[in-house]
Design goal:
The protein is of the alpha+beta class. About 25% of the residues lie in helices and about 25% in strands. The chain has helices at about 5-10, 50-55, 60-65, 75-85, 110-120, 130-140, 150-165, 170-175, 235-240, 245-250, 270-275, 305-310, 375-385, and strands spanning about 20-25, 30-40, 40-45, 70-75, 90-95, 100-105, 180-185, 195-200, 205, 210-215, 220-230, 230-235, 255-260, 275-280, 290-295, 320-325, 350-355, 360-365. Strands 1, 2, 3, 4, 5, 6, 7, 10, 11, 13 and 16 form an eleven-stranded mixed β-sheet that branches. The chain has a five-stranded mixed β-sheet with strand order 8-18-17-14-15, with no helix packed on it. Helix 5 (about 110-120) crosses helix 6 and helix 5 (about 110-120) runs antiparallel to helix 8 (about 170-175). It is globular. The two termini are about 40 Å apart.
Length: about 375
């Protein structure tokens, strides 16, 4: 994959998009800074934060992004180029969130629901996936995307599938009343645009999960959105759903970026609902290319319903949270042999894109071979105190 330019990375209507992000800057205040992009210039607006969680709580957020003054850190072209270097050059992009919780919703599309059931019944063995896929489609015999989760129709299908032995814990969260919402990563552990994402070294069957991610404040208001890669280990979760933590939360296993686009009159939740998210995987070792799309109009639960199931009287997030909305795209094309399906190779390049949010790219590596995560909340507080 050729390095991307800022024109490729930013939203198609970047001239009017309200963008906020984080960069690792050089110089006297080396460390993370909050930034926005105006007329091609990257502007440090940490003074109006000092954390991204603080910034997204502001009532005057739009005005700050449009008008706040601060040191210029250079042109966006430089930042995009630096972020794709190996290792990255300062200043470079970080994940556009910091102390927020990182939450994710699973099984929100009918296609991904089917694939989760396959993982479960295959017990982590990719060679069994194709036969199971054919059998399950014959048993289900309906278009799951048309069923409203928690409805009477869903309950009727549940009873029918239980009688046929086709029910699953994944069917329960796919069409039942309660969404699956889990913790994807720890605050400050996510990587950003251009970084390498990590696979647990034990995994032999894995894939990217391209998703739209909502930025939600402490009151449950959605303030913007970005792109994310919910890196997934199909063999680990397939052995047992109780291994979800090992399947989902490893060093560099969560990527977000390039920026959070703040909601305004040009971009809002209806834009998210109508978005198509594209995925392109390019193999450095074998020339393999895979492309696909996720259409948010096919999601089974409305994004705001997923927010309500995450925050409310039952659970608070005083620092806000980032919410992965789920993906319909589980690559199944054979890569390493007939019936083996898709799995990553080291040094794959993954590009996730949608016109309103831009493009998130990452290479693929092993979690135990990537730089360890060392900059946590205490380090952030020390850095802000020094500033």
């Amino acid at each position: 994959m050729q390095p991307l330019s800022s024109k490729d990375v930013l939203p198609r209507d970047a001239d009017r998009a309200l963008l906020v992000g984080r960069v690792w800057q050089a110089g006297e205040n080396s460390g993370p800074a909050l930034v926005t992009v105006r007329r091609g210039q990257v502007i440090d607006i940490t003074e109006f934060g000092p954390t991204m969680a603080d910034l997204l709580e502001r009532d005057d957020l739009r005005n700050v992004v449009q008008n706040a003054e601060g040191p210029e850190l250079g042109h966006i072209d430089t930042l995009v180029t630096n972020s794709q270097a190996v290792p990255p050059k300062k200043p470079y992009l970080l994940a556009p969130c910091d102390v927020q919780a990182i939450k994710a919703c699973g099984v929100t599309f009918a296609v991904s629901l089917l694939e989760r059931v396959i993982e479960e019944q295959a017990g982590g063995d990719p060679a069994r996936a194709k036969a199971l896929r054919d059998d399950l489609q014959a048993v289900i015999g309906t278009d799951l995307s048309r069923i409203v989760p928690g409805s009477e129709e869903a309950a009727t299908l549940k009873r029918a599938l239980q009688e046929k032995g086709g029910w699953s814990q994944y069917m329960e969260v796919g069409i039942g009343p309660d969404a699956e919402v889990f913790t994807k990563a720890q605050p400050l552990s996510s990587v950003g645009f251009g970084a390498t994402v990590g696979l647990h070294p034990s995994s032999k069957w894995n894939n990217p999960e391209p998703e739209i991610v909502l930025a939600v404040d402490s009151q449950g208001e959605v303030r913007g959105a970005t792109l994310g890669n919910d890196v997934n280990l199909r063999d680990v979760e397939g052995r047992s759903a109780l291994l979800l933590g090992k399947a989902k939360d490893n060093n560099a296993s969560c990527s977000l970026g390039p920026f959070v686009r703040v909601f305004d009159e040009h971009f809002g939740i209806d834009t998210v609902r109508a978005s198509q998210v594209s995925l392109r995987i390019e193999g450095a070792s074998d020339g393999f290319v895979l492309e696909g799309t996720s259409d948010m109009r096919e999601i089974s639960r409305d994004p705001l319903d997923l927010v309500r199931q995450t925050i409310g009287a039952h659970h608070q997030y005083p620092d806000g949270f980032m919410l992965f909305l789920g993906t319909m795209f589980s690559p199944i094309e054979d890569r390493d042999g007939e019936g083996q399906g898709f799995t990553h190779h080291i040094e794959d390049r993954v590009a996730i894109a949608t016109p309103a949010l831009g493009t998130l790219i990452n290479a693929v590596g092993k979690s135990d071979e990537l730089p360890p995560w060392t900059f946590g909340i205490r380090e952030l507080m020390h850095h802000l105190a020094r500033r």
